[in-house]
Amino acid sequence: MTPMNRRSLLAASAVLALPALPRLARAQAAATMRLSHQYPPSHQVSRVIATFAETVKTRSNGAIDVQVYPAEQLARAAENFPGVARGAFEAAAAVNFQWGNTLPEMNAVTLPYVFSQLERIQKFPGSDAAKLLESLLEKRAVKNLMWLYTTRQAIFTSGKKPLIAVDDFKGMKIRGLNALTDNGLAAAGAAPSSMPGPDVPQALQSGVLDAGLTDVSAAVSRRYYEIQKFGTVAPWFCVFTHVYVNPRWFAGLKPEHRAIIEAAAREAEQQQIPITEKVAEDAVVELKAKGMALHLQTEAETEAWTKVMQPPVIQAFLKLAPENGQRVLDLLKQL
Known about the structure:
The protein has 2 domains: about 30-150 and about 240-280, 3-Layer(aba) Sandwich (D-Maltodextrin-Binding Protein, domain 2); about 155-235 and about 280-335, Bacterial extracellular solute-binding protein, family 7 (D-Maltodextrin-Binding Protein, domain 2, 3-Layer(aba) Sandwich), CATH 3.40.190. It is about 45% helix and about 20% strand. It has 13 helices and 11 strands.
């Protein structure tokens, strides 16, 4: 081979190698974790998720880029599960009861008066009850990453009279959470209508609803005090926001990157608890300052509401979840 031919061959080889350079750059680029959720940036859960994203980025020296999309910017709440399961994006957050009949066991902590004591809530992440729910989520093609405690204080709002005794619910058109928990409200004589939280204020203003049901912090952010005069604060439910990821994407990460994400998730779970409690305390103070007549439910009233509202909901829950419903309730009782 002549010197000229050798130079030509080397030049051609260099040109052919050029397309490999972008591929190499991509291989060394940060692993992207797009995380979709419904909360506005100011919400306490949104803030903890944002901190989680920064922690992961810092500890991985930028090798993991957690891109958070709040307020349904990436996908609507109902689109998150299918989007993550099929790999359209890597992660999402959802409140536990949004699974509804798709995974009824996820409603367990939200059943009336079943799981609203703080000392038990603190033990939930990492518990056998949580692990059972995580195993059921894996069968739905998503991997649970963390449980973020969102609320344990419901507020029942009304305009004409406070809702204190069970009989006060009779004939009241009230906002419901889902078909399952609505059984308890119906047992008290109310006419529940399930609807998303953002739709409730307008329904109250227009008379479609007589009474509202939400958590105390949402009553502040959605200005219930401008629409309703009375509010009864009760430990009626517990809500967790859980963050889940695509299992194939997660398994494809480097082991050290998975460890960073898992460690940051455990920290976020613990950070969320005092933040949520403080937000609830501040919300009660602010609602009073805004002129709402608040009543904090007494133990006797809690017992009376539980006696009427809890049995029909648990009965419906066990019908929806015949295989694991009782099991998850038993595991929650152990906490």
